[in-house]
Amino acid sequence: MARFAATQTNGPTQKPGWPKGTRAKVTVPDVVRMKAAGRRISMLTAYDASFARILDECGVDILLVGDSLGMVVQGLDSTLPVTMDEMVYHTRAVLRGTRYALVVGDMPFLSYQVSIQEAVANAGRLVKEGGAEAVKLEGGLTMARTIEAIATVDIPVMGHIGLTPQSVHRMGGFRVQGRRHGKGPGNRERLLDDARAVEAAGAFAIVLEGIPLDLAEEITRELTIPTIGIGAGASCDGQVLVIHDLLGLSERTPKFARRFADLRAETARAVRSFIDAVGAGSFPSDAESYHSIAPVAQTEKNQQHGKNGVNQSTVRA
Ligand code: KIV
Hints:
By secondary structure, the protein is α/β, with parallel strands linked by helices. It is built from twelve helices and eight strands.
């Protein structure tokens, strides 16, 4: 299949304020068109500018500033305590490192569930203060009116159904959803209704998390908006991973995540080497140290001899 080129889609080719780039900026309409074009969408989480820059330069389509930062950055055991201020802060940092990818800011727990007005105001904060180009929120049928209200003020919304981490207590843990039939929350037929409701409410894409692959396939076939899967099999229109899982930085890797690297072991190796080098006095070396422009003794000698300049052979970077 030919690689989908965002430049063919009328999307802006530059991010305002950045020097001329080599690729087209990914926009919300680009992401929607990728499904029709049969082009699979890649999405990764990012929480700071340094990682955002690396992932963006590699060509990832979407950077999600996920509230998963509560677990992988802040060391919490759920995403529930993450605040709006924290999400704004991290979204702004990611935006600074991003040139091409679409930046999506995640709405944290209780930033959109209390009232529709608060939801619109908080989505607006992620856009106005964080620079997000879209927001993501968890929930299906019960969040349809909220999604509609946010989309109505032209803030693009990405839905998220299935294993929704903010529902951890209702689910009784981080458990695969949609395995049982029924219309109750988390059941198969209910998740189909949730997906339909999210699309009908005006979301431009939807994350399917922790559901059986055949259910994800059915939802992906039925919806016209792209589905982006995490633990939802290969039939989704795109895939998302938490960057710490992909890089092997997490202590435990969930079944659905593939470690594309083992940076935990590599980081430990590097840190042990540093500790050993410090202990042995071999770090920093002479080449890793700064030097005076001229040795003090030499300068004094030159002055005594009435010489003006410095001995160029002693000048070091
Ligand atoms: O918060 C997050 O990182 C997410 C993704 C796992 C989809 O919601």
